[in-house]
């Protein structure tokens, strides 16, 4: 039987704070909101393809939104969700690149070769060029397409850039995380560069502007310059609330009573992002788009608990296949929804947005083969049953194999040392090493003794390599049923075997020194030519151009003064 160890606080103490009462499910938090009796007019009919705004946040925890009982203020998101459809059975991937690749392609990462880790800045790797992306399909349907925010799908060749993958315009970063003001990103000691791009050019002139504000302002400008009579797709991939934990001082002041400093900064970033969404929504209304618009809100993975995020009461965190890593915040807000103001428990995965949005746009899916996503608009808009019955969370053959896993433990059909996870119906199976497995209450108390993120820990299970949960009955993954239900384990292992037969080889090439920003004018950007392949390697020397050398020195000096000026102006905590 599992034994739970509590560090610093007793179970009774936690109950006194309400942490283990499970009242996050009470009606005032996530239950359906009754339709306004005065709202008798039916939703508008589709006379034209709808405008689509897809908002993706970075590292926002499952608990970190008002309607999940959070201590963080998100009034805009709460209102949009309450007036639309909350997705409470919605799944994403545990880290950045996989979620973004599956959104853009509608395919599991085993079908794009991106099943291991993320795309790193110095890797000659990107979203496979043979994949027809979501924005490309929307362009075919007559949409104007725009991206604002974080790409993180590779950039080693120009063909990999957002403007070559279906977006008419792009303002944002190419790598995984940058400074919110200076847009500098270091991929190891001394490997630093600037990463903010306008189209395919470096946007040096935008440095010093807080990214959350900058991105929301750009969305407003796009809407102001476009005609609402023509369909538009805007993909807003906020950098928030990924580290580094940075926010304008006035937002941090709102949470000055929070004892945990990381949580305080993180909360400020979430509220700032919420206000950015408010400004985007206001622009949709001001410029005449709102009545024929669909707003989709999604997180990209679970929250990072040691950086202020919270996935409570779910188990695990970002980077794990526990529910805390893969169960996302999601909702749809639109005047076009037929059954508004409710919570949907339909099973939805991030791959589903590709066919759903292309269908809404009246695009053609007949020539797209091998999609793993489903059109879930009838489930969202009308409350119909979801066509999805299972989700492959992933199969990662390169991840560290579990020490105690074996083919024998997998009935001779699956090596349980391999990291993998799948959900079929109400059952969820995990094999290998699923990642950090604790339950972590919200970090709101001051001065937790010891490590506050280790508050409740599962002390056995270190010799395990197979877990089985009934997620419908046990969404917090507290009762492992793998020994009681070997029949279900075997059935789900067979599904893993099925999917594994369809997987393509992992794309995870070695880093290339040519990617160093010092070879590219001080900024991250494409470094390979059109003729260079993924495994391309070259013997590279520093650029010999005198002008280039001078530019790099100026860039470094400019970067120093940008950082100094930003700190003086913002008084960041």
TrEMBL record:
GO terms for MF: metal ion binding; sulfuric ester hydrolase activity
Transmembrane segments: none
Keyword set includes Kinase: no
Cofactors, names only: Ca(2+)
Keyword terms: Calcium, Glycoprotein, Hydrolase, Metal-binding
Classification via SUPFAM superfamilies: Alkaline phosphatase-like (SSF53649)
Superkingdom as given in the UniProt entry: Eukaryota
Domain Sulfatase N-terminal positions: 50-361
Signal peptide: none
Membership in a protein family: Belongs to the sulfatase family.
Name of the protein described by the UniProt record: ARSI Arylsulfatase
Originating species: Phainopepla nitens
């Amino acid at each position: 039987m599992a034994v739970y160890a509590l560090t610093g606080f007793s179970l009774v103490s936690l109950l006194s704070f309400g942490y283990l009462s499970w009242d996050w499910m009470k009606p005032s938090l996530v239950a359906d909101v009754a339709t306004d009796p005065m709202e008798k007019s039916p939703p508008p009919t589709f006379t034209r393809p709808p405008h689509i705004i897809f908002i993706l946040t970075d590292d926002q925890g499952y608990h970190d939104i008002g309607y999940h009982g959070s201590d963080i203020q998100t009034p805009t998101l709460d209102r949009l969700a309450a007036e639309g459809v909350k997705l409470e059975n919605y799944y994403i991937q545990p880290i950045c690149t996989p979620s973004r690749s599956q959104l853009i392609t509608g395919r599991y990462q085993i079908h794009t070769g991106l099943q291991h880790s993320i795309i790193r800045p110095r890797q000659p790797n990107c979203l496979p060029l043979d994949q027809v992306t979501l924005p490309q399909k929307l362009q075919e349907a007559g949409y104007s397409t725009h991206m604002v925010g974080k790409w993180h799908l590779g950039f080693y060749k120009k063909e990999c850039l957002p403007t070559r993958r279906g977006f008419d315009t792009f303002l944002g970063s190419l790598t995984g995380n940058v400074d919110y003001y200076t847009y500098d990103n270091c991929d190891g000691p001394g490997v630093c560069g600037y990463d903010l791009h306008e189209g395919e050019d470096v946007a040096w002139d935008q440095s010093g502007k807080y990214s959350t504000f900058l991105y929301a302002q750009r969305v407003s400008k796009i809407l102001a310059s476009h005609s609402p009579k023509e369909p538009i797709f805007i993909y807003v991939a906020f950098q928030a609330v990924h580290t580094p934990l940075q926010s304008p001082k006035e937002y941090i002041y709102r949470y000055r009573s929070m004892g945990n400093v990381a949580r305080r900064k993180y909360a400020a970033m979430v509220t700032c992002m919420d206000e950015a969404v408010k400004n985007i929504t206001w622009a949709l209304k001001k410029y005449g788009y709102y009545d024929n618009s669909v707003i989709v809100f999604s997180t990209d993975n679970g929250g990072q608990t040691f950086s202020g995020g919270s996935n409570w009461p779910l188990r695990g965190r970002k980077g794990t296949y526990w529910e805390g890593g893969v169960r996302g915040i999601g909702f749809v807000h639109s005047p076009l929804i037929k059954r508004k103001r409710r919570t949907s428990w339909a099973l939805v995965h991030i791959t589903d947005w590709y066919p759903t949005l292309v269908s809404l746009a009246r695009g053609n899916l007949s020539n797209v083969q091998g999609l793993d996503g489903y059109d879930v608009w009838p489930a969202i808009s009308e409350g119909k049953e979801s066509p999805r019955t299972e989700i492959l969370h992933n199969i990662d053959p390169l991840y560290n194999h579990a020490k105690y896993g074996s083919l024998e433990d997998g009935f001779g059909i699956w090596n349980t040392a391999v990291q993998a996870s799948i959900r079929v119906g109400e059952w969820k199976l995990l094999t290998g090493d699923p990642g950090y497995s604790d339950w972590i209450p919200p970090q709101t108390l001051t001065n937790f003794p010891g490590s506050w993120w280790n508050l409740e820990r599962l002390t056995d299970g270190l010799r395990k390599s197979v877990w089985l949960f009934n997620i419908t009955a046990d969404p917090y993954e507290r009762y492992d049923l793998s020994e009681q239900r070997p029949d279900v384990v075997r059935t789900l292992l067979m599904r893993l075997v099925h999917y594994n037969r369809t997987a393509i080889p992992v794309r995870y090439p070695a880093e290339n020194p040519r990617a160093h920003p010092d070879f590219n004018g001080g900024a991250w950007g494409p470094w390979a030519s059109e003729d260079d392949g993924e495994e391309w390697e070259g013997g590279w020397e520093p650029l010999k151009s005198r002008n280039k050398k001078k530019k790099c020195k100026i860039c470094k000096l400019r970067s120093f003064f940008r950082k100094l000026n930003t700190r003086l102006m913002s008084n960041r905590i």
